[in-house]
Design a protein that fits this description.
The structure is a single chain. The protein has 503 residues and is mostly helical. It has helices spanning 2-6, 10-21, 32-38, 53-66, 76-93, 100-109, 113-121, 126-136, 143-155, 161-166, 178-190, 200-227, 235-251, 259-265, 267-274, 283-297, 301-312, 314-328, 333-351, 387-395, 399-407, 421-437, 439-452, 481-487, 491-501; strands at 357-358, 367-368, 374-375, 383-384, 458-463, 470-475. It is 61% helix and 4% strand. The strands form three sheets. It has a two-stranded antiparallel ribbon with strand order 1-2. It has 25 helices and six strands.
Length: 503
């Protein structure tokens, strides 16, 4: 049967596919030599000759077969030129085979990861096809194909972004943004369900990188080019492009995952361009980005470093100096000034961060490097400077109760949630800095709270999400949305309150 299929028998080829991939009675390796024969470039008809129907039909079937098994290591470089040559013929001369573009993307996904980027980036015109496939996915109906495209985009180093954009976007003076919108539609649709590598944090970051590389980067470049244009008036088009840029960024479940790459791609430059008075239609969106999204994200160390570096970039600073006279008279000047000061101040804190631990015995105030402390071997959460402090906290500091909560995973207040160690060290340093800076105002509010509710405890909330940054003192005797949320977080909150009362 395999010999007959290799010699051109369409029916035997179909039967062989069935027993391999449906009945699973033979190894997939048996079909690879047949695919090689059917995709022989020498069999591609020329313009002058009548297309041999059997050869074309076999080639189309071979392509549909190829994306089922993983291509064996080392064969991709030899097999892919055959795939690409036949695809170009079918795409040009057999337009009714509309599914061939999707088939090509699926075949590309089956290339070995270690050779995928090299082979695909060397194939001129491939990413133009991917761009067209993206356009066909805008209705969100072909979820299976969308997953293949997503898997491809997050596992290759795309060097031919121009081709990808060329696949769907008209000249940049028109900026229809069709490709970007199409990508946005299905990427956000699959953001919660895509399981590319089985590791949610890494998968989310790779998805974010794909969105930036495919959608944000060309858009940033387009905004910059348009900003240099005067005929026709680029204002409305820039406003449209900037609005879509924000739509992409806001759509991310965790926006901070996409910001580092977006900043590297030119986000600060886009902000400076869209902050000009002549583009006043963008100002409301711009203020929202600065105050409610970028400012809170400065609590993540990687985002803060990128913002700080971008603002110190010589080219960008020259741009800001040119725009400064106009910005002073703009309605976003206050928001921009606040943001610059925030990044500058927090970057200074980050540069001075020295990771330290503090003894968890509430009667001890020793603070030192982490290696100076011993971790509780049961909960692996609390640290002590000595056995004496650990014993004291076990009996007098209620660690006996807290240890059980931590050990059984019943805690959410200190859950890491994809935070890096650098993030946690910086957040503690920022909290310590802000407490010292505002301690007199905090003490005043605490006194008022104690006078109003002398028999109840109190707690301080440092709000780094809202803009501007805020500090509030709450009484445990007064119901509030903050207190309700903390109580719903689990037993850890009750343990924290009990331990604080003993401190």
């Amino acid at each position: 049967m395999a010999t007959a299929a290799a010699n051109g028998s369409f029916q035997d080829f179909k039967r062989l596919r069935q027993i391999i991939f449906i009945e699973k009675s033979h190894s997939p390796d048996a079909v690879l030599p047949i695919i090689y024969r059917c995709l022989d470039p020498q069999k591609i008809p020329t313009v002058d000759e009548a297309a041999p129907r059997n050869a074309v039909t076999l080639a189309a079937l071979a392509l549909r077969t190829l994306f089922i098994p993983i291509i064996p290591a080392g064969t991709g470089s030899d097999l892919w030129p055959r795939v690409w040559a036949w695809f170009r013929f079918l795409d040009t001369h057999r337009p009714k085979l509309t599914e061939m573009k999707g088939v090509l993307v699926k075949c590309a996904c089956r290339l070995r990861p270690e050779e995928r980027s090299r082979i695909l980036n060397a194939t001129q015109g491939f990413y133009t096809v991917v761009g067209r496939v993206l356009g066909s996915l805008a209705d969100g109906t072909d979820v299976g194909l969308a997953r293949f495209v997503m898997a491809l985009l997050v596992t290759v180093d795309i060097s031919n972004l121009e081709e990808l954009v060329e696949g769907k976007i008209p000249p940049i003076t028109e900026l229809h943004l069709d490709l970007l919108r199409d990508f946005f539609v299905f990427a956000t649709r699959l953001a919660k369900t895509a399981d590319i590598d089985g590791d949610p944090p890494n998968s989310a970051r790779r998805l974010a990188k794909a969105i930036v590389e495919v959608a944000v980067k060309p858009l940033m470049h387009t905004l910059y080019i348009l900003s240099l244009s005067t005929d026709p008036d680029p204002g409305p088009v820039i406003n449209k492009g900037f609005s879509f840029l924000l739509q992409v960024l806001y759509s991310m479940p965790k926006m901070y995952t996409v910001l580092p790459t977006a900043i590297d791609t030119g986000l600060i430059g886009a902000i400076s361009l869209c902050g000009r008075p002549s583009l006043s239609e963008t100002h409301n969106n711009l203020k929202s980005l600065l105050l409610h999204h970028l400012s809170p994200s400065t609590m993540y160390a990687e985002v803060l470093w990128r913002l700080s570096d971008a603002l110190q970039n010589a080219h960008l600073m020259e741009m800001f100096e040119l725009l400064a006279p106009e910005l002073k008279n703009s309605d976003i000047a206050e928001s921009w000034t606040h943001f610059i000061m925030l990044v500058t101040n927090r970057a200074e804190i980050l540069r001075q961060v020295v990771p330290k631990k503090m003894c968890d015995n509430l009667a001890c105030s020793k603070k030192d490097v982490k290696d100076a402390f011993q971790m509780c071997s049961k909960c692996r959460h609390s640290y002590y400077c000595s056995k004496e402090c650990q014993n004291a906290d076990w009996h007098a500091g209620s660690h006996k109760t807290a240890c059980s909560v931590y050990r059984h995973g019943e805690h959410t207040l200190t859950e890491r949630r994809h935070l890096t160690k650098r993030d946690r060290d910086f957040m503690r340093a920022a909290l310590d800095h802000d407490f010292r800076k505002y301690k007199h105002q905090i003490y005043d509010e605490i006194v008022k709270c104690i006078i109003a509710h002398p028999d109840a405890g109190w707690f301080v909330v440092f709000d780094y999400v809202s803009a501007p940054f805020g500090i509030e003192v709450h009484s445990l005797a007064v119901e509030s949305s903050v207190l309700e949320k903390l109580r719903q977080s689990g037993p850890e909150w009750e343990v924290t309150v009990a331990r604080a009362a003993r401190s």
